[in-house]
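Handoff note, outgoing to incoming analyst
You'll be picking up this chain. Sequence as last confirmed:
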Amino acid sequence: MSNVAKAVELHEFSEQAVSLASNTQQNSKTPWLADVREKGLATFKRMPFPTRKTEAWKYTSLRALSAENFHRPAQQFSIANAEALFEVEGLEALRVVFVNGEFNAELSSPELLSTSGLNIIQFADANESQQKTIKTHLANVSETERNLFTALNAGLIDNGLLITVDKKVRIERPVQLVHISSQQPENASVFARCLVVLEQQAELTLIEQFVSTHETLNTIFNQTSEFIIGDAAKLNHYRLHLEDESSIHLGGVYVDLNRDSQFESYQLALGGKVKRLDVLVNHNQPGSHCEMKGVYLPKHEQQVDFHTYIEHKAAHCTTDEVYRGIMADKSKAVFNGRIHIHPDAQKTLAELSNKNLLLSNQAEINTKPELEIYADDVRCAHGATVAQLDAKARFYLQSRGISRQEAEIMLSFGFINELLDAMPLVALRDKLRPLLAQQFTSNAALTRHLLDKALAGEGQAQGVEA
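Most recent structure output, in case you need it:
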């Protein structure tokens, strides 16, 4: 396909998006958000569509977006046995489930409205006070000028989810926010929005889980989450991208940290046709802490693209960022991590590590860790590695009677198991282990053996700690 033909098709994509946004504005359930939509759409119209010459999109092809018209509303599907797609055994969570962008009360927890100190409401059902909260914070943390698709999401906000936690309230049960995607009669788009506001000294655990039915997807999923974390408040965040490999997902996580607040995030992404996640964290006031751990595992011809931006704007703040990726077959991954130390951010402690493992000669990773420092009293470090399996370690395992295939899988799984072990939610960890082990082999017996070894190692480690 010529560059001219590509440009024409991408221009058509933009025109179709603008048309859908106009229909949304006319038929919106939330007319009081008209200003947010207009501002987002204006930004989208003004920004050029990303190409290979656009630095932030240099290694990620958007050709899949230009295939056909995706800008139709998605339809629902039968929810029979849908729990199997997202259920986590042993996780006593408050569930909020959306199916193709629409809230599903039948799959959600009935006790949501009776949880003291926790308020979960759709934008369309918000009262006057909640509307004020939404208008105060919505689209103020997310930087629409940085990402075209975040601007498009703002331009197409019709409904969304507001989660607030009252002052000095600690919510014991996790909130499990599930988005289910399914195959559509025609190509379609799903736009979703989540706004979380934690008041002073509040604490919440939020699991954002993206799953799909077991069929080829023909939707674009565009989702943006904004987190406002108050003074001395803490958000424990999990974001799990577990959709089918045919998925197209353009997502964003935007965080405002205030005095002594904490953001701890665990992100996991299996590959897709196009899967891009932008994460922005603002250290706005002294004493805040950000800890992010991420794993990405594309295979076949899938791709995953992570872009993280940590803005240290105040003194005495800390960041610990660790991402690991394993690329198999002909898959491709992109990691761009940037830590920006502003002039007033003295006494900053910030570290960024990105390690990658290539399981084939055709797999590809483009990694670029960045430090931009304008303060002189800081401790910062960053680094990236790209390697293949260690031949000596594999030989050592084979010399102990372990087959070559099992040795390679053990080394691969061990590369990411350290980050899995760091997950505080045991039920979620137990759910993800077999899922990730299956990424390395289709042999069920070998998967079970691998998991037994991992669990045995964890038990020994706990015994040593005791």
